[in-house]
Amino acid sequence: MSVPSPARTAAARPRRAARPGVREAAALATREAILRAAIRVFSRYGFDGGRVERISASAGSYDRMIYYYFGSKEGLYVAVLEELYRRFNEAESRLELDLERPVDALAEVTRFVWNYYRRHPEFITLLNTENLHRGRHIAKSRRAREYSFPAVRVLGDVLEHGARKGLFRRTADARDVYLMIAAMGYFYLSNRYTLSAFLGEPLESAAAMAHWEAFIVDAVLRAVLPPDALPPGTPPAAAGKRPRGLLRSRRVA
After folding, report:
1. What is the 3-state secondary structure (H, E, C) of the chain?
2. Of 66, 163, 192, 227, whose CA is between 20 and 30 Å from 125?
């Protein structure tokens, strides 16, 4: 009787099945690498200049994997925008707000939004790009609307507790306050270089940034305080003085 050779014996054995989840984890890692690369590339080159081959090279992947996971370049771009909002919500969810101190909580949320914009320039850049396209890509997202809910809800909880304590106006609307915070932070940061030249001020300096952060917090609090909370004509004490060298009012001859 013949004895099978070691090679044939090894070949006859069934291969050990891969551990459950290994393939899924590898697929997720590939998708995440493409997404991170796309954020970098679209931030630098915009939607039109963010070519598929440039993104795949940056991700250390292949063009076909982009189409496999995202369907198209536009599908990837929409996923990038969704990922930006997801990251923002995730960071905001880590805030530990004391709702029993609603004034402090509102100031903390305001500072968070400002500093998140400041520390994540890709967020500002990509939103600028999408607005140049009149939002036609994000409009195709099935998840865009759900990403706005947590951000507004956080403010809603803070405003509700403040109103119960008589510290905030009951008519203060979370959506309006969110738009106010976003507008004051987003506009400043996205236009600070042109405004620096236009106003003759170093708006990108640390002192100017700190001043504007304090100004936003002060403005937001004043917007929600009851009408009788401050005496008429009270100056914005929280904002303080502007750093030396910032634009002073000019007398017109």
Report:
1. CCCCCHHHHHHHCCCCCCCCCHHHHHHHHHHHHHHHHHHHHHHHHHHHHCCHHHHHHHHCCCHHHHHHHHCCHHHHHHHHHHHHHHHHHHHHHCCCCCCCCHHHHHHHHHHHHHHHHHHCHHHHHHHHHHHHCCCCCHHHCCCHHHHHHHHHHHHHHHHHHHHHCCCCCCCCCHHHHHHHHHHHHHHHHHHHHHHHHHHCCCCCCHHHHHHHHHHHHHHHHHHHCCCCCCCCCCCCHHHCCCCCCCCCCCCCC
2. 66
